[in-house]
Amino acid sequence: MAAFGRHKAQRLARPDGSRRGGLDERAAPVVRLLNGRARFCTTSSCAGRVVLAQGGAAGPGIQKRSCAWLLVTHGTCDKGDVMTALEKATGDVVLKFEPFVLHVLCQELQDAQLLHSVAIDSGFRNSGITVGRGGKIMMAVRSSHCLEVPLCHKGKLMVSEEYIEFLIHVANQKMEENIKRINRFYERLESALDAAVSANSSSSQETGKNRSVYVHRRKRKTIQEQGVRTSPEDHNPEPEPQDGTESSLDIFAEIMIAD
């Protein structure tokens, strides 16, 4: 756990490598909730976005490897913004909707399983867990309700404005559903983490209670033995039970503590 804590501190101390230089507004509550718990460390996130991405010939916009973004928004978009961005097209352009994605480094497999269960229940059914060679456990929250449609070829618009308007409507619907899933994921995750803490606390209390019973029995037995040895009036002490009842209880208590 100490090694995980050090690795987490080092990772979170790094500068944000995203284009925004910070968290997406809608992803921030989930990220902060997880990073506030010792057993989790987020490594990347995106709240979801609508993108006009251009490949091929270089053009204006945000460069990403061999791709330029003519338009990107983490909310709904309108036809006017899309048509204005398409006027800058010089290559092949696609309209994309990319849903919420989150990658979380987990201390133990059971922590990743908890996140996976919550993600699936919240609608992120493409989520999964990977375990690296060094034992690194990564949980990815993903969804399959994506959209990717070509609009331009070599800068020439290949579809009608009516079709573009339809696509924007579909993309906006997907964004709205994406936002609902993020909110649902946050609420269920918060409840699951709180429940896990309560369960661990109850387990610790039960262990402490078992230890207290064991110590009490040991003290009682010690006092009885000392009384047998030191009492001058008791020349014929009652013999100890031959069936080993008290010893069995002690052994049983020790097994419970070991568990």
Topology:
Layout: H1 2-12, H2 28-35, E1 40-46, E2 49-55, E3 62-64, E4 67-73, H3 79-86, E5 92-98, E6 101-106, H4 109-121, E7 128-131, E8 137-141, E9 147-153, E10 156-157, H5 161-230, H6 245-258
Antiparallel strand pairs: 1-6, 2-4, 2-5, 3-4, 5-9, 6-8, 7-8, 9-10
In short:
The chain has 259 residues and is of the alpha+beta class. It is built from 6 helices and 10 strands.
What distinguishing features does this structure have?
alpha+beta; 6 helices; six-stranded antiparallel beta sheet
The average pLDDT score comes to: 80
Helix/strand class: alpha+beta
The biggest sheet amounts to:
6 strands, antiparallel
Shape: elongated
Share of β-strand residues: 15-25%
State the end-to-end distance. 20 Å
In DSSP terms (H or I, runs of 4 or more residues), the helix count works out at 6
Radius of gyration: 31 Å
Stretches where pLDDT is under 50 for at least 5 consecutive residues are 57-61, 228-259
Relative helix content: 40-55%
Task: Report what the structure shows.
Helix content is 48%, strand content 21%. It contains six helices and ten strands. It has helices at 2-12, 28-35, 79-86, 109-121, 161-230, 245-258; strands spanning 40-46, 49-55, 62-64, 67-73, 92-98, 101-106, 128-131, 137-141, 147-153, 156-157. The strands form two sheets. A six-stranded antiparallel sheet has the order 3-4-2-5-9-10, with helices on one face. Strands 1-6-8-7 form a four-stranded antiparallel sheet. Helix 4 (109-121) packs across helix 5 (161-230) and helix 5 packs antiparallel against helix 6. The chain starts with a helix and ends with a helix. The relative contact order is 0.11.
